[in-house]
């Protein structure tokens, strides 16, 4: 599958997970594809990990006035309260520092590390909206940097995907809200 076709399929499925069903000419699709292309090129051509703020800024630029900025309000995912806004800078700094260490000297398999940092990011939930789409782009960026293929999580796999985040959260409470 050609890169463009792969990325378009990815964007369709990633949006579908969030119950966003838009056509290619809609800005939600186009911005998501633009962010996915940035992730692909950054990892493949320069072996560089893009920042969550940078990805979110592109992904949500036509949706949020403060795209790329951490949220300033509390959010819940389902019935689960996420990190307090005043802790987001410290939590994300810890996330980024740990990721950079693991990219330099990995302490686990690339596959496990990619999922670990994805789930950790999702557990922090630093943005008001777009966390899932941003997180899946970061997951793929890490995968590509480690030499793993691009991953498409389909709409049909969303329950298993969400369950994996919940399982990670239950065994890593020290890395989220309580760790600040």
Descriptive overview:
The protein has 180 residues and is an all-alpha fold. The protein has one domain (3-179): Fic-like fold (Orthogonal Bundle). It has helices spanning 3-17, 27-46, 52-59, 88-104, 110-124, 131-145, 158-171, and strands at residues 76-77, 80-81. The protein has a two-stranded antiparallel sheet. Helix 1 (3-17) crosses helix 2 (27-46), helix 3 crosses helix 6 and helix 5 packs antiparallel against helix 6. The model has no long low-confidence stretch (mean pLDDT 91).
Which tags fit this structure?
single chain; 180 residues; mainly alpha; Fic-like fold; two-stranded antiparallel sheet
Topology:
Elements: H1 3-17, H2 27-46, H3 52-59, E1 76-77, E2 80-81, H4 88-104, H5 110-124, H6 131-145, H7 158-171
Antiparallel strand pairs: 1-2
Helix pairs in contact: 1-2, 2-3, 2-6, 3-6, 4-5, 5-6, 5-7
According to DSSP, the number of beta strands is: 2
Low-confidence stretches at least 5 residues in length (pLDDT < 50)? none
What fraction, in percent, of the residue positions are helical?
55-70%
| Biggest β-sheet strands, sense, barrel | 2 strands, antiparallel
The CATH architecture can be named as Orthogonal Bundle
Amount of beta strand: under 5%
Strand order of the largest sheet: 1-2
Report the CATH superfamily. Answer: Fido-like domain
Mean pLDDT: 91
CATH topology type: Fic-like fold
Spell out the helices and strands N to C.
HHHEEHHHH
Tell me the Rg in angstroms: 15 Å
